[in-house]
Amino acid sequence: MDPKRYSVRLGVLPTERYGFGHHERMLAAKQRVTKKLEDLGIDMVTVDGVTENGTVHALDQVGPVVAALEEAGVDALFFPHCNFGSEETVAHIAQRMKKPVLIWGERDLDERREVSSITDRQCGLFATGKALRRFGIPFSYIENCRVHDPQFVQGVQRFLAASRVVKAFRGLRIGQIGTRPTPFLTMMCNEGELLEKFGITVSPVSLVDIIEDARELMGSAEQREQARVFQETIPVFEVDREGIDKMAALKLAISRWAEQSGCSAVVIQCWQALRRSYGIGTCMVNAFLTEEGLPVACETDIHGAVTSVLLQAAVGGSTPTFFADLTVRHPEDDNKELLWHCGPFPFALWDRISPVKVTAKGQAFWRIRGGDITVARFDGDRGQYVLAAGHAKGVDGPETWGTYLWMEVNDWPAWERRFVEGPYVHHVSVVHGHVADVLAEAVRFIDGLGFERLP
Fold first, then answer.
1. Left (φ > 0), alpha (ψ -120 to 50) or beta: where does 53 sit?
2. Tell me: the pLDDT tens digits for 185-201?
3. Shared domain check, 179 and 159
4. What angle, rounded to 10 degrees, do the helices at 87-97 and 62-72 form?
5. DSSP reduced 3-state for 266
6. Both ends of the chain: CA-CA distance in Å?
7. How many domains is the chain partitioned into structurally?
8. What's the longest Cα–Cα distance across the chain?
9. Plot region of 386 (φ>0 → left; ψ -120 to 50 → alpha; else → beta)
10. Residue 376 and residue 359: Cα distance in Å, rounded?
């Protein structure tokens, strides 16, 4: 996956209360925070050269600052308070920009505890927080701490990850291949409402068109190369050479169509129409597409595809997501549950121990690695939408077919109740790592979306 796809440009706008005193201390605080952000390798834009001192402190700066930030293409705003700060200026800039906002102020009093060094940065945070609330502007903040404290680094990194999620969500486009399977009422969604509430668009195409595109690619150099990659990657194929060629062509056809359509994820009617008309399933194809950064949701699950995009952004594309059914409770442990689907988990996540094969139907069989995971679901009904997320651990469990992983949570009966009572369904998107806090922070900046933390 291309890391540039998940880059976030941070507008850094140190704020001061003009004429507040301790001018040199204010400038030193500004230098400390910008130096720390540089050391962290953050892509940032300052207002040095745009305003006096490179700080924001007056209303007549709002227009030039906003123009400079828009020209630079910033994705999020950070207002470090270098003394008390100017809550009015901060609020007006944030209102105009409509980007995720982070506020923080460095802890006052140095090791010598000189009261004369106080610059009231913490006090200014209270004022700015209230001003932003008055303007109806959601924001994140890092507790009053020193720039070298771990809370600062963790807070900045969490905010940047949340900003990636917001950036991925806004203007999201999902490619839909085929209709939902008729019995799957759970996969119904309100396409118009997704557009009206969130700006999410769905780009539909028929299975016939994708299959014809795949057939046209058969025998091409690209198709032969993709078939070679499949054979060199997967140890055991029960599929004949024609089946491998068909899967290679199908992968290329879906990938090209998604790119041409500007889609960040794809949903597909993966059974039974595709097998009947094309002779092979899409399970392993879904696995490889997801691994390359184009998440594919089975059974035309549009809400599931949205969830996968958000999780992928939360981890910055550092590891692929996987799309799973909640299926079976562990036979002995009440807090363990099977994450399963018939073949779409990326092969890059294979646990390197379990048997591996692709069946004659195109289904993949392998267990993926365990460890810390985040399980999430974007869903809604009756006009109300929620993003649920919780942390779990991938663990050992009974062997089964398809692609799978057993997970352990603190209180599975509570999870089960939440998924049965809704608005969720049996599908979840999962990623390795703990990013529920990132998703919770991102939801602050998405109007009309609630958040539920799974226990």
1. left
2. 888 999 999 999 999 99
3. no
4. 40
5. strand
6. 31
7. 2
8. 80
9. beta
10. 29
Check if the beta carbon of residue 223 is closer than 8 Å to that of residue 217. Answer: yes
CATH number of the domain that residue 21 is part of: 3.40.50.10940
Q: Is the bond leading into 272 cis (omega within 30 degrees of zero)?
A: yes
Please give the backbone phi and psi of residue 294, each rounded to the nearest 5 degrees, phi first.
-115, 90
Segment 240-259, tens digit of pLDDT: 999 999 999 999 999 999 99
Structure tokens at 223: 């198709």
The mean pLDDT value for 409-438 works out to: 97
pLDDT at 181: 81
Question: Is the pTM above the cut of 0.90?
Answer: yes
Mean pLDDT of 377-392: 97
> Is the separation of the CB atoms in 251 and 282 below 8 Å?
no
Helices (H), 239-381: 241-261, 273-278, 283-291, 302-314
Question: How many other CB atoms are found less than 10 A from the CB of residue 401?
Answer: 13
Of 169, 201, 232, the position where a domain reaches its end is 169
Cβ burial of 233 (10 Å; 0-12, 13-18, 19+) is: middle
Domain final position from 135, 169, 203: 169
Phi, psi of 386 (to 5 degrees): -140, 145
d(CA 184, CA 140): 39
pLDDT digits (tens, 9 = 90+) for 93-129: 999 999 999 999 999 865 445 555 578 899 999 999 9
Residue 379: pLDDT above 90? yes
In tens, the pLDDT along 1-44 reads 776 789 999 999 999 997 766 788 899 999 999 999 999 999 99
Helix, strand or coil for residue 63? helix
Q: Residues with Cβ < 8 Å from 60, sequence gap 6 or more?
A: none
Domain that holds residue 108: 3-169
Stated as kind and residue range, the H or E segment containing 160 is helix 150-169
The type of residue at 449 is: L
Return the sign of the alpha-carbon dihedral for residues 269, 271, 275, 276: negative
Q: Residue 111: its pLDDT value, please?
A: 47
Q: Are residues 399 and 268 in the same domain?
A: yes
**Whole-angstrom distance, CA of residue 364 vs CA of residue 270:** 13
